Amino acid sequence: MSNPAHLDAGQLCWLSLQRGETVRCLAGSLWLTAGAEDIVLHAGQVYRAHATHAVLCQALQACRVQQQPALPARPQNGGQPHRWFASLIRQWLPRIWRNAG
After folding, report:
1. Within 10 Å of residue 18's Cβ, how many Cβ atoms?
2. pLDDT 10s digits, 1-33
3. I want to staple 29 with a disulfide (CB 3.0 to 4.6 A). Which of 3, 46, 60, 70 is the partner?
4. C-alpha of 81 from chain center
5. Domain count along the chain
6. Is residue 12 part of a domain?
7. Domain with 50 in it: what CATH number?
8. Cα(11)–Cα(5) distance, rounded to whole angstroms?
9. Which domain does 45 fall in, by range?
10. What are the tens digits of pLDDT across the range 43-78?
11. Cα–Cα–Cα angle for 6, 9, 11, nearest 5°?
């Protein structure tokens, strides 16, 4: 459901969510049941799945809802870009200062 879907008041739907995927309420209000957790979303609010599971959605009032894919995980590289940047600064900063004077 990457395109927004319209639900009339009281209408139910099931969403199959992967970990990290989100359900965004674009308008109206929506009640989600995810496992033992009940969540109410109002326009502009988001629910992010912490695990892969099915979610039951019920529109509390007419609403627009959108399921969005998970964001890609940030690489876990042990700070390598920071080390690279620090070495670049150590290399070039003295040269810049020498040439500026």
Report:
1. 12
2. 567 889 999 999 999 999 999 999 999 999 999
3. 60
4. 24
5. 1
6. yes
7. 2.60.120.10
8. 12
9. 5-68
10. 999 999 988 989 999 999 999 999 988 876 665 555
11. 70
